[in-house]
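Re: beginner question about structure tokens

> Can someone show what the tokenized structure looks like for a real chain? I only ever see the sequence side.

Sure, here's an example I had lying around. Input first:
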Amino acid sequence: MGLYRATGQRITKAAFPAVAVTDPPKRITENVYLTEPYGRGDGRPEGSRRHLLYEAGDIVPQSVIDRLFTTATIATISPATGAAAGGATVTITGTGFDGASAVNFGATAGTELKVISATELRVKTPAGTAGAVNVVVVDDAGNVTKTNGFTYTA
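And the corresponding structure tokens:
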């Protein structure tokens, strides 16, 4: 008795045809629900349904979990200009904003961040110096940057 290749050659333990798993399994430790909008489909938490996605004890590959957290995208920033003194309320539209925790204008975080929906954020600009700065949405699935997304005016 033993293990053999299709060619009839015996397989030793050291030569067993396998590679290390790069997608480790994860045990779910509590029930996880997926929330989906219904009705108008505006993406807001109101008017949504919850479905059990994973039950505590389920085993899921890490790659499956990673796919549940899609990276945000920035479509528009409005207004795209504001005074260097800061304080302008900016609306950012895009996708995947559910996990947004901050918005940076250059190296400085905006204030009063409100996640309106998965597709809309509002934030007040911090003070800055005249010129264009990158806008970075800090998100639990990965940060997203709009290069020169906001311009401070003198």
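Each token stands for a local structural state, so reading them left to right follows the chain. The two ends are 82 Å apart (CA to CA).
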